[in-house]
Amino acid sequence: IALSLFSGAGGLDIGFNKAGFNIVACVEKETSFCQTLHKNLGRYLESDCRIINEDIRILEPEQIFNGQIDFIIG
User: Fold this and answer.
1) How many CB atoms lie within 10 A of CB 3?
2) What secondary structure letter does DSSP report for 73?
3) Which long-range contacts (CB under 8 A, 24 or more apart) does 64-67 make?
4) Backbone angles phi, psi at 28, to 5 degrees
5) What are the tens digits of pLDDT across the range 53-70?
6) I want to staple 2 with a disulfide (CB 3.0 to 4.6 A). Which of 12, 21, 60, 64 is the partner?
7) Backbone φ, ψ for residue 65 (5° rounding)
């Protein structure tokens, strides 16, 4: 299980997904990048991946994912 921080448009996330990582959430504060991430859901990313359009500095960990994270992409 992986978490993506500062996800941008998701290029790194797509590569990690293809390598077998289950990305449970992508955190990105830029709305236009999140719109691209939403378009990639189901096509390049797992459809159950949460896209969080917020600044990481104001989030509590449980707001992102309430479980075990094995890997962080950033």
Assistant:
1) 22
2) E
3) 64/3, 64/25, 64/27, 65/3, 65/24, 65/25, 67/1, 67/24
4) -150, 130
5) 999 999 998 899 988 999
6) 21
7) -160, 130
Rg of the chain over Cα atoms, rounded to whole angstroms, equals 11
Which residue, chain included where needed, has tokens 């993506």?
4
pLDDT digit string (tens) for 24-60? 999 999 999 999 999 988 888 888 899 999 999 999 9
What is d(CA 48, CA 37) in angstroms, rounded to the nearest whole number? 12
- Residue 43's identity, in one-letter code, is R
- Tokens 């104001």 locate to 58
Please give the distance of CA 52 from its chain centroid, rounded to a whole number.
7
Helix then strand then coil, in percent of the chain rounded to 5, is 35, 25, 45
Token reading at 55: 């600044």
